[in-house]
Design brief:
This protein is α/β, with parallel strands linked by helices. The strands form 5 sheets. It has an 8-stranded mixed β-sheet, sandwiched between helices. Strand 7 and strand 8 (159-163) form a beta hairpin. The chain folds into 2 domains: 6-178, 3-Layer(aba) Sandwich (Rossmann fold); 186-387, 3-Layer(aba) Sandwich (Rossmann fold), CATH 3.40.50. It contains 13 helices and 20 strands. The two termini are 18 Å apart. It binds cytidine-5'-triphosphate.
């Protein structure tokens, strides 16, 4: 499956370094070319000889071992299709976030233009440190794929979050990025709840966090697609972000991108109504016990897109608090979209602000696929796979 793919594995100085020997074998079994680069500290945990024999390639450690005219870090960066840094220590994460290039691994990372997966592993207190969390946020905003550590018994004797995630997770992530068939397609994705002003200080909105739309955008971007995220939530990413507020603004932005899009995914929670006469001044309290706001219907962005679509695949979401599948079946007919992703917002363990979701994907021909509860990134990958089949 990975035959001919060039995978660069960067190992830093943490105890989980020994596990990477098995990861190299997993890629080699699929006929991938693997090159390994280590920080000097990584060699305290695993030997160069082991890594060389498993990868069947020389292992890079020193920056100035230059066998040809091209500086070592540039040739490593040019050759690989993907880079995986595992385990990534707090130190290396922070250096990469600051652009520090003080060894071969950090220099390669700085010069690397293709997807990078970072799998951190460290003591749980280091993981929770605000400096490390801030640096990870920085890396995610620049397009690095962070595979969070797992909780459990740590080699340092502590119990908590910090164990390297499973090798299967790292392998699956890399394989999904390397083998996706849809590279170069344009995805327009909406995220977050729209904000409908009442007056300059008040608004009507909903609890949507925008996490599902962001996960879809991140996953498809990592697979080499062109992404435009139209969002009501502030976010920094290496792909195109259009920040909007109201349903009307969202519709204008979506329409401007629609013609050139291959996929439109409406993950946003668009307000069905907005205030009819929004006040330019703050509405003052009166002696009356009640206040009546008149609302008018917002355009149904998804439905209008479905009416005018030509080559595009249009995907809607369906947030329901009861009768999920009955309502979803009705909704896909009413809207006319190619796929509808139904999720139950009444459950506390999935949906709106959670990092997890569980969805049923309906297609226009009556087909249904359930994706069991998983992280929003995994659900996003599942959705992308189905809509690309
Ligand atoms: N949607 C839209 N424009 C609207 C309302 C919703 O484009 N004015 C889109 C959402 O982004 C989502 C889908 O339509 O992809 C379904 O949204 P949902 O809120 O579940 O359904 P509604 O059409 O609003 O119907 P209801 O609120 O009655 O369930």
């Amino acid at each position: 499956m990975l035959s001919g793919k060039n995978i660069l594995i960067g190992i830093t100085g943490g105890i989980a370094a020994y596990k990477i020997c098995e990861l190299i074998r997993m890629f080699k079994r699929q006929n991938a070319n693997v090159r390994v680069v280590c920080t000097p500290n990584a060699l305290n945990f695993v030997t160069k000889l082991t890594l060389r024999n498993l990868s069947q390639n020389e292992v890079g450690v020193e920056e100035f071992d230059i066998p040809d005219f091209k500086p070592e870090h540039i040739s490593y960066a040019d050759e690989a299709d993907i880079m995986i840094i595992a385990p990534a220590t707090a130190n290396t994460i922070s250096k990469i976030a600051s652009g520090i290039c003080d060894n071969l691994l950090t220099s390669i990372t700085c010069a690397f233009k293709k997807p990078v997966i970072i799998a951190p592993a460290m003591n749980c207190n280091m993981w929770e440190s605000p400096a490390i969390q801030e640096n990870l946020k920085k890396l995610a905003s620049r397009g690095y794929k962070i595979l969070e550590p797992e909780s459990g018994f740590l080699a340092c004797g502590y119990e908590g979050k910090g164990r390297l995630c499973s090798l299967e997770k790292i392998y699956d992530e890399a394989a999904s990025i390397l083998t996706t068939k849809t590279k170069g397609k344009k995805y327009v994705i909406t995220a977050g709840g729209t904000i409908e002003d009442i007056d300059p200080v008040r608004y009507i909105s909903n609890y949507s966090s925008g996490k599902m739309g962001l996960a879809l955008a991140d996953e498809t971007y990592h697979c080499g697609n062109d992404v435009t995220l139209i969002t009501t939530v502030d976010v920094t990413r290496p792909y195109k972000i259009i920040k909007v507020k109201s349903a009307i603004e969202m519709q204008e932005a979506v329409n401007a991108e629609f013609e050139t899009a291959d996929f439109i995914i409406m993950a946003a929670a668009v307000a069905d109504y907005r205030v009819k006469n929004k006040s330019d001044q703050k509405i003052k309290k009166t002696n009356d016990d009640t206040l009546t706001l008149e609302l008018v219907k917002n355009p149904d962005i998804l439905k209008e897109l479905c009416n005018k679509k030509t080559h595009q695949t249009v995907v809607g979401f369906c947030a329901e608090s009861e009768n999920l599948l009955t309502n979803a079946k009705e909704k896909i007919q009413k809207k006319g979209c190619d796929y509808l992703i139904a999720n139950d917002i009444s459950r506390k363990d999935i949906g709106f602000s959670s990092d997890y979701n569980e969805v049923t994907i309906l297609d226009k021909n009556g087909g249904m696929i359930k994706l069991e509860r998983a992280s929003k990134s995994e659900i996003a990958r599942g959705i992308l796979k189905v809509i690309n089949e």
